[in-house]
Amino acid sequence: MNSTTMTIRVPLEVSDKLSRLAKGTDRSRSYLAAAAVSAYVDRELEIIEGIQQGLADVEAGRVVLHEQVVAEAEAIIAEARQARAKR
Prior knowledge:
The protein is mostly helical. It has one domain (about 10-85). It is about 75% helix and about 0% strand. The chain contains three helices and no strands. It is elongated, with a radius of gyration of 24 Å. The relative contact order is 0.05. This is CopG family transcriptional regulator. InterPro entries: Non-func_TypeII_TA_Antitoxin, Ribbon_hlx_hlx.
């Protein structure tokens, strides 16, 4: 895997916690920081891309009215309750 060096500023408390974590897991601070940044970036990109997809769906008219979703959910719940009551 290719990598690059980055310099970041973190609060002293975070740096201390990272040191404790590194010691407790027998991993380097660099490894743990890279893993944390990677997880954060992946999660945030997934959120941003989901929002962008949602906005594209709205622009394309691929939407369902809230009232319709609620009505369908209520129908499913009522059906499940009836099936449970028959047991």
